[in-house]
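(Protein data)
===
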Amino acid sequence: MADLGTLLAAGVFVAFAVHRAITIRRGADPAQRYIAGFAGCMGTAMLFRAPVMVSALHSLRPLDAVVVLVTHELKTCAQAMLLFVALSLKPSRPARRSVQRQILLAAAVLVIGAVALLAAGARAESGPAAAPVGQRWILASYNVLFATYGSWCLLVLVRELSRQSRQLAAGPLRTGLRLMMLAGLVGTVWTLWVLTYIPTNLAHGLQAPSEDAVCSALGAVTAVLATGGATATWWAPFSEGPLGAPGRWLFAYRAHRALEPLWSALRTELPQIALDASTATRRPAPWRAEFALYRRVIEIRDGHLALRPYVPTDVPAWAAEAADRSADRRAVLEAATIAAALEGKRAGHRQVGPHPPGPAPQQIAGTIAAEAAWLLQVATAFTSSSTVAAVRARARDTCDAAA
């Protein structure tokens, strides 16, 4: 089992690294180069840590000790690559001094790790590496250093991927980023798993030269998730066929529920927008969620259009005064427009005079999924944006003053 999991993970990582090395061109996105470097370092390290490989190298002493040292250094290099991926994803280019600090930190961890392994005096004995009694704490300290630095690099990457995914509409790219986030979280557990070796380090001075079954399984899952996330745009077309139906049902069901607050607010003031009032509030079965989502999108659009005569002409100015930098400004403006119009509708304050009706809904070209993805951003802003809350309050005050 350990052999299978380790070799599977190593094969996936190495194959991906080779593919990226072939396809990356000069001047490509630095993140792509760092990802390829991570996959290459981690795949090579895992290949030499497979139990079958460890058994083969055990008879080639002292080469086996050199291989153990090199594989640990490769894993640390892979962790550093992930940190540089996170830096390259930041919206503004990181300062050169910041990058230099991270390079120096990575080099220090590599040097300290190598010195610790050598100072522990571990020698291969019947498979595991055994350290003398006086140096066992050094072996345990190395594992603490490896787990601490590795998990920190992974969590920094997950944080940056999370920020990126929140700024994207639903689609293959966001799916890929979320798979990469999940890979990072599983990878953190995989990295921290080395801490389970510490009691054995201290009690017996032993360090298994190969991956155990749990470690191999975590590595395989991490490799598959990371590769799936990095290649999401390749296999996305399959989601349009029968094989992608469960995924579409899940997206439609979740989107249908996420649009509930916006839809409910509109339907309360405009009950006529419900295309089928008898089933409007029922939760759809998963296999009917796509049609239910389609209907909900239409009803929200109809409600927005029906509210245009109630939109205060000052909404764009109010929204600009309380600009929300954390979300798409177009989505915030559309949500603010709906919120202000609902206040006007409740107060019966219809806009009169030479002013044209309020702004029309944002036009989204493409599929119902693209339309739903846009409305999800609007719904999120409608319920959580401070700008929308400020515009809603201004509209309510204006209606009260006019009453």
Summary: DSSP finds 17 helices and three strands in the chain. The radius of gyration is 28 Å. Residues 136-166 form the longest helix (31 residues).
